[in-house]
Inverse folding.
């Protein structure tokens, strides 16, 4: 079975720190290689993989402003579809734009929909509905106008996230500094509870950061440490008393949630989007209806068995589980495609 994986080129695959779509594409690629498949990864030239690397963009455009995103996206996607006949299946992680190429090739295409950045992109998905095999990353993130062949939750390499059996001192916010992700709510909860807070992640909305986060930073009780790479991530997540995920939008998945639980750290999250699919309320964390309710569950964190948090991820959100499910899907699609051609 020859598989092509199309990764985004905003960041390296795998990313140095931020880049969730690139990270998932990397985990799937390396998992397929371990299963003995012939895999080609289409990514930036500085990407790292055990698969065959096919690169057009020399570097990630988010890290080099001299690269025009539209130009390099066009060249990157075209490179794969011009070579589509070499593969039994193409797995697209590049959102909606590659769908517009699928009518020009016979190779079946799977698209993992990592979330809808805007309702404005949905017409493209509608146009290629059923021509392309859509995978949702949570049941909650399915669009009513589209047909899906599967829901496959993201999986992480659990063995790379060390288990911490004892609760840490601090609360943790880990994600984009953006109004939707709840950084300001995490700050206010920490101030109210008197517990120290660490914030980690890229600043995606500078004005929001300056207005709602920066004024409360003192470098001790509340501190921002910037983006954190893979080498430091496990210790930071595992050392937390709880991860705060006080979102104000319907989260499509939430990698940091399962990464924290893999380390044994419970999660306090607003009950939106995929959160009830990831968190077992009262067992691996707490689901609250609003950020104001989060203060009421801080005293209950001692009820959480941190071993149960890790077991939940190992059994349901590991790369092993994710890759197995994608392999089953690939085989079914390729079989039906060949049957249709025959």
């Amino acid at each position: 079975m020859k598989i092509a994986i199309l990764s985004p080129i905003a960041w390296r695959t795998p990313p140095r720190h931020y880049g969730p779509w690139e990270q998932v594409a990397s985990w799937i690629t390396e998992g397929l290689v371990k299963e003995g498949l012939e895999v080609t990864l289409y990514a930036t030239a500085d990407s790292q993989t055990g698969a065959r690397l096919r690169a057009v963009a020399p570097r990630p455009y988010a890290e080099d402003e001299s690269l025009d995103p539209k130009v390099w996206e066009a060249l990157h996607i075209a490179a794969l579809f011009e070579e589509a006949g070499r593969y039994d299946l193409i797995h697209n992680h590049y959102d909606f734009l590659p769908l517009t190429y699928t009518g020009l090739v016979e190779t079946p295409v799977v698209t993992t929909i990592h979330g809808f950045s805007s309702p404005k992109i949905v017409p493209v998905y509608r146009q290629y509905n059923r021509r392309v095999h859509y995978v949702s990353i949570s049941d909650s993130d399915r669009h009513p106008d589209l047909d899906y062949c599967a829901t496959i939750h993201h999986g992480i390499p659990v063995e790379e996230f060390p288990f911490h059996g004892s609760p840490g001192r601090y609360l943790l916010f880990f994600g984009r500094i953006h109004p939707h992700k709840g950084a300001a709510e995490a700050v206010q909860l920490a101030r109210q509870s008197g517990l120290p807070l660490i914030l980690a992640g890229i600043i995606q909305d500078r004005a929001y950061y300056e207005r709602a986060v920066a004024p409360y930073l003192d470098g001790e009780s509340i501190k921002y440490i910037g983006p954190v790479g893979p080498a430091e991530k496990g210790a930071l997540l595992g050392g937390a008393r709880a991860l705060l995920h006080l979102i104000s939008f319907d989260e499509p998945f939430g990698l940091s949630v399962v990464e924290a639980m893999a380390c044994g750290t419970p999660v306090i999250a607003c009950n939106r989007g995929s959160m009830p699919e990831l968190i077992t309320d009262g067992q691996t964390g707490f689901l609250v209806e609003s950020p104001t309710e989060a203060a009421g569950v801080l005293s209950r964190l001692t009820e959480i068995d941190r071993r149960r948090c890790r077991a939940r991820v190992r059994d349901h959100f590991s790369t092993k589980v994710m890759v197995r499910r994608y392999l089953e899907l690939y085989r079914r699609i390729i079989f039906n495609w060949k049957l249709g051609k025959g």
Notes: The chain has two domains: 2-155+318-341, 158-316. The domain at 158-316 is CATH 3.40.50.2000 (Rossmann fold).
